[in-house]
Amino acid sequence: MQPSSLLGWAVFATIVRLTSPAEAGDDEVAAKRIAMMKCQHYLDMVSIPHDIMTLEMDSRVRKVYSVHCPLQNPYVVGGRRVEKYEFPHMVALGFWARLIWPSGGVTLNYTFQCGGTLISELFVMTAAHCINKDLAIVRVGVVDLNDPDAEDIWIVEKIVHEDYSPETRYDDIALLRLERNVTISLHVRPACLGTDRTERIHRATVTGWGKTSQDSHLSDSLGKVSLDVPSDRKKCARMYRGIGQSPLIDRQICAGSLDGNQDACHGDSGGPLQVFEEGECRYHVVGVVSYGKICGSAEYGLYTRVSRYLGWIVKTAWPDDWSHQEYWESW
């Protein structure tokens, strides 16, 4: 399915570099509250009302709300295929590709080389290293990239964090503003942003359409894999200590499988590292796939830590909410 706007919108999308001031005190609290409020808001939008009879003396009928929740059962090495509706926040980033025929003709199409996370009706979060002039669309609401019902939306603004450094790979995070709002549904729904609370974990899930092994092709089917998140970062720090490598910093998360059987890989960049909140049937994205060494090796990969950028994300994605303090102070 083609995007619903003119070709030039994607070609001339603006690349903007923004930074956030040091997040501390009131700003940090405000960003966290707004992120939590939005998390609940998007869940409420797809909740289904049910009438239940209480066990109280008056036996009144009360209304409760629930959301369709798939059972929790491959750039993802050693992963499993994803069920429909399981990751409604997952998007694929489409880049212009020029196919030159033997006759000399040229056809324009898309290749999907990075992933991203829908965080609002209008914004997608991804890795800064995925941003270039050929990035044109996001594909939403699909598990199979060849799904005939896939919806493509033009990207009109690419916002790279000002502190991003390709050399150190620090601050590897970016936001994409879409041409129009997505329609929230069971298979298209923003994820929750990770906070320091949701980072107290030992396992997390990474999803993507990347390679399923170092030598394979990119996958058309979305894959998922569960990774260890070590509480002791010293081993991970040692893996990334050496000539030409930047030291591990607090704004990065380590995750992986030391037996080498499960990993993220080429094509998964920009996608989410996420934890599942079973009681509420929602994912909290704690990291953005940044980089690693050899796919499927017995070493951890590195992910940009989302909670360290909450202020920057909230001010960019929800500027009206940020400017009206009374909106979140009473929440």
Topology:
Elements: H1 7-11, E1 14-18, H2 25-45, E2 48-53, E3 61-66, E4 76-77, E5 80-81, E6 90-100, E7 106-118, E8 123-126, E9 135-140, E10 151-161, E11 174-178, E12 192-193, E13 203-208, E14 223-228, H3 234-239, E15 252-255, E16 263-264, E17 272-277, E18 282-291, E19 301-305, H4 310-317, H5 319-323, H6 325-329
Parallel strand pairs: 1-10, 12-18
Antiparallel strand pairs: 2-3, 4-16, 5-14, 6-7, 6-9, 7-8, 8-11, 9-10, 10-11, 13-14, 13-17, 15-19, 17-18, 18-19
**What is the overall number of helices?**
6
The rough form would be described as: globular
- Mean pLDDT across the residues is 79
What Rg, in angstroms, do the CA atoms define?
20 Å
Number of strands: 19
Class from secondary-structure proportions: alpha+beta
Q: What helical percentage do the residues reach?
A: 10-25%
Largest sheet: 8 strands, mixed
Give the SSE order as H and E letters.
HEHEEEEEEEEEEEEEHEEEEEHHH
Which fold name corresponds to the CATH topology?
A: Thrombin, subunit H
Just name the CATH architecture. Answer: Beta Barrel
Q: Measure the end-to-end span.
A: 40 Å
Total tally of structural domains: 1
Percentage beta strand:
25-35%
Give the CATH level 1 class. Answer: Mainly Beta
Unreliable residue runs: 1-14, 19-23, 61-65, 71-79
Signal peptide: 1-24
Keywords: Disulfide bond, Glycoprotein, Hydrolase, Protease, Secreted, Serine protease, Signal
GO molecular function, one term: serine-type endopeptidase activity
Main location: secreted
